[in-house]
C-alpha cells in the first residue's frame, strides 16, 4: 500500500466536509471486476445510506450485480455519487441518488418515500452512513460534536428504519454497519465508538421486537475492522495513516470490496435463518461478540 495522502480542511462548523474518494492515494478498491452475480437479489430494491463511496459504494455495486435496483443516499460528495450511479447502471441495475443529511428525520422519511416511488418497492435497508472525529482528550469533544456523531451514526438508523417499516415485509432485510470499535473501543474515537456500541444493541433489540418478527424482517449487521475509505484520511493525522491497519493479524487494512459479499449474504435468502447477528470482517481480530 502506497503512503496515504489526503488534503482536507476542517470547516468553521466543526466537522469535516464529506471526503472525495477520487482524491485519495492510493484509491480504495470498491469494485471487484471479477465479481459475478448469481441473481441473489433479482427483482429487489435496496437503499444504502452513505452509498456514494467506500463500503457503501462497494455494497451498492454488489447488490446491482446480484440483480437489485439501488437508491444511494449521500451527504455532499456529488462526484462520488455520480460515479456510484454509473457503476450500478453498468452492472444492470437502476439507481436513484438522493442528497441529504440522514441525521434529519424529515429527510429520512422523504428519502424512503422517494425510493419507493421511483423503484416501486423496498426490500433491503442498509444503514451505513457514518462519521468520526479524532480526539486524544475527552475535553476536546464538544457537545456539538457528540450531537453530530450520534445523529449521523445512530439516530439515522432509527429514522430510516421507522420510515422503512411501512414498506418492508416478509423476506425484508435491514443491515446496520457497526465497527470493531464497538467491541474494542478506540481511545481517540470515543464518541464514534459509543455510537457503534449502540448500533450493535439496536440491531439485537430490533431483531427481537415483535413488530419485526411479525412482519418477517431480519435485522443484522457488519462490524468492519480498519477499512481504507475516504473517512480514514480525513480523520487521522498523516503519521497515523502510515500504520493504518497494520495492527491486525493480517497486517494490512481491508478494502471496501472485501466487505460487499457479507452484505449480499445478509440481504439475500442465504441468511434466512439469521437475525440479530454481527459479521466480523476485520482482518482476523477475534472479538467474541
Automatic annotation (TrEMBL):
<dbReference type="Pfam" id="PF13561">
    <property type="entry name" value="adh_short_C2"/>
</dbReference>
<dbReference type="InterPro" id="IPR020904">
    <property type="entry name" value="Sc_DH/Rdtase_CS"/>
</dbReference>
<protein>
    <submittedName>
        <fullName>NAD(P)-dependent dehydrogenase (Short-subunit alcohol dehydrogenase family)</fullName>
    </submittedName>
</protein>
<dbReference type="GO" id="GO:0016614">
    <property type="term" value="F:oxidoreductase activity, acting on CH-OH group of donors"/>
</dbReference>
<dbReference type="InterPro" id="IPR002347">
    <property type="entry name" value="SDR_fam"/>
</dbReference>
<feature type="compositionally biased region" description="Basic and acidic residues">
    <location>
        <begin position="1"/>
        <end position="16"/>
    </location>
</feature>
<keyword id="KW-0560">Oxidoreductase</keyword>
<feature type="region of interest" description="Disordered">
    <location>
        <begin position="1"/>
        <end position="35"/>
    </location>
</feature>
<comment type="similarity">
    <text>Belongs to the short-chain dehydrogenases/reductases (SDR) family.</text>
</comment>
<dbReference type="GO" id="GO:0008206">
    <property type="term" value="P:bile acid metabolic process"/>
</dbReference>
<dbReference type="InterPro" id="IPR036291">
    <property type="entry name" value="NAD(P)-bd_dom_sf"/>
</dbReference>
Amino acid at each position: 500500500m502506497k503512503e496515504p495522502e489526503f488534503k482536507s480542511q476542517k470547516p468553521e462548523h466543526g466537522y469535516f466536509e464529506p471526503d472525495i474518494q477520487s482524491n485519495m492515494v492510493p484509491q480504495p478498491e470498491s469494485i471487484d471486476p471479477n465479481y459475478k452475480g448469481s441473481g441473489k437479489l433479482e427483482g429487489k430494491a435496496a437503499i444504502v445510506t452513505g452509498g456514494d463511496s467506500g463500503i457503501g459504494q462497494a455494497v451498492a455495486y454488489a447488490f446491482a450485480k446480484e440483480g437489485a435496483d439501488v437508491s444511494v443516499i449521500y451527504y455532499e460528495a456529488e462526484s462520488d455519487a455520480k460515479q456510484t450511479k454509473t457503476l450500478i447502471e453498468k452492472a444492470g441495475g437502476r439507481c436513484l441518488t438522493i442528497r441529504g443529511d440522514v441525521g434529519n428525520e424529515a429527510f429520512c422519511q422523504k428519502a424512503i418515500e422517494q425510493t419507493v416511488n421511483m423503484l416501486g418497492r423496498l426490500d433491503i435497508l442498509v444503514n451505513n452512513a457514518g462519521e468520526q472525529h479524532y480526539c486524544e482528550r475527552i475535553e476536546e469533544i464538544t457537545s456539538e460534536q457528540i450531537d453530530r456523531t450520534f445523529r449521523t451514526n445512530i439516530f439515522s438508523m432509527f429514522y430510516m428504519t421507522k420510515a422503512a417499516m411501512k414498506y418492508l415485509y416478509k423476506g425484508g432485510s435491514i443491515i446496520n454497519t457497526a465497527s470493531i470499535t464497538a467491541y474494542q473501543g478506540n481511545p481517540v474515537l470515543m464518541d464514534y465508538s459509543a455510537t457503534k456500541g449502540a448500533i450493535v444493541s439496536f440491531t439485537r433489540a430490533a431483531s427481537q421486537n415483535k413488530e419485526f418478527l411479525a412482519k418477517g424482517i431480519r435485522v443484522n449487521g457488519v462490524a468492519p475492522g480498519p477499512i481504507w475509505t475516504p473517512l480514514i484520511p480525513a480523520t487521522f493525522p498523516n503519521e497515523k495513516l502510515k500504520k493504518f491497519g497494520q495492527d491486525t493479524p493480517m497486517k494490512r487494512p481491508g478494502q471496501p470490496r472485501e466487505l460487499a459479499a457479507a452484505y449480499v449474504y445478509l440481504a439475500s435468502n442465504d441468511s434466512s435463518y439469521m437475525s440479530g447477528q454481527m459479521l466480523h470482517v476485520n482482518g482476523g481480530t477475534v472479538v467474541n461478540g
